Amino acid sequence: MAPNMEQTARVCFPAARRVTDPFHVQKLAYEAVQEMRVKARWEALDEESIQMTHARACGKTYHALVFENGDSRKQLLARSIYPLYKKESLWTEFQRIRAVILFWEYPDIKKAYYLSMRLGLIYHQCRHKDTALTRLARWYDEVDKHPLTPNSDISDRKKKPI
């Protein structure tokens, strides 16, 4: 996909048909989503550790927040790895429920997930270079408007009543 590689292929192999392999580009998008999930998980682990220490100091027993599917926050983030790699249509019922909770709690991960899925659709649906370039430009504009960086402060998230 790099212009210098295209030029090299054109000069060295003039009769070859050049194709674009989107695998590595899509892989980078998926990895960016996973990095956000991992960062949120570390934040959840740190928050839970602080709460446990505080409860212990007050002589109380710590009870982690549990969502309606039975996951704690750290379990939710740990068990959400596979749905974030798959198309929504391929999720199991448990993955769908977990994703709904995850996306409610972490709207930045939801945005990143859908942006990564849209990138894959561009590569799979577009058959003409000009159409693909136009859709990629629009996708890049959307990424610029909504940078794929996780919220640094957990308290900023909207909390869903349980």
Structure summarized in a few sentences:
With 162 residues, this protein is an all-alpha fold.
Key features?
elongated; 6 helices; mainly alpha
Account of the 3D structure:
The longest helix is centred in the first third of the chain and has 35 residues, at 23-57. It is built from 6 helices and no strands. The chain has one domain. Mean pLDDT is 86; it is low at 150-162. The protein has helices at residues 3-12, 23-57, 73-79, 93-105, 107-125, 129-145. It is elongated. By secondary structure, it is mostly helical. α2 (23-57) runs antiparallel to α3 (73-79) and α5 runs antiparallel to α6 (129-145).
Average pLDDT reading: 86
Shape: elongated
The total of helices stands at 6
Number of extended strands: 0
Q: In percent, how much strand structure appears in the residues?
A: under 5%
Q: Structural class per helix/strand content?
A: mainly alpha
Number of domains: 1
Poorly predicted parts: 150-162
Element pattern in H and E: HHHHHH
C-alpha-based Rg, rounded: 21 Å
The level of helicity is 55-70%
How would a textbook summarize the main sheet? none
Distance between the termini: 47 Å
